[in-house]
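Bumping with the actual sequence this time:
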Amino acid sequence: MSAKKIALVTGTSSGFGLYTSIELAKKHYFVIATMRDLHKQNQLVAVAEENKVRDQIEILELDVTNKQQIPKVVNDIYERFGRLDVLVNNAGISFGGYVEETSVEDWELMMNTNFLGVVLLTTAVLPLMREQRNGKIINISSVSGSVGFPGYGAYSASKFALEGFSESLRLEMLPYGVEVILIEPGAYQTAIWDKSIDYIEYRKKENSPYQKPFSAILAFSKNITKKATDPQQLAKKIANIVESNRTKFRYPLGKGALVAIWGKALLPWKWFERIILQQLKK
């Protein structure tokens, strides 16, 4: 078994995954940083070199929707290091659309990437963590995993599923010394939202009965993105959670996350939905 602590992070070409890989490497983890397209590794390489942790990071190809690729990557980690201390399930996609106008193909893509991909990779690493009776599984959810927003039904559904899966898995694995932790980000400056907005604009239908409210949602999303928090702050928090001996299950982080989650929990639903709809009219 390797003396190094090993971390596996998905979706590392940008955003949370990239900066989490850097922060874990700074804390002397050897990071297996995976991404679907290795042609997009340049930013990670540049930031790693800038922070003098390039030798602490190995970049591998991994598409979390590829059922054949997942076991190969996990088996390679087991054979080379004999251990896995941390799994950060970060890979994900987002795009908007009213439920009536969201295609079956889009539903499948969202659920396969944001939910089933997490299930498949987590299931693959569980035997190793269970046998070593130690490990942390960090699932990157979203405020949308607790609060469903109009125009993001598919994304919310994938994150709600991730939250339920994580709750059950945490209770299953605690007796084996394995912690499952949910990160619930609010608004952060990551590429996922730029891609989401581009996808929404591309798919907007001129004759849609939802054109007016959907345009309001798009404007709201753009405004939130401009004011969003630097993703490096969340990455540093994740690295500190990984190192901590006393962790919680849920971590709502970033602008709007705690307000939205507690607002839904404490306010009568009629009041809460009125606040959401009023925000979209601004």
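The tokens above came from a reply further down the thread. The first helix runs from residue 15 to 26.
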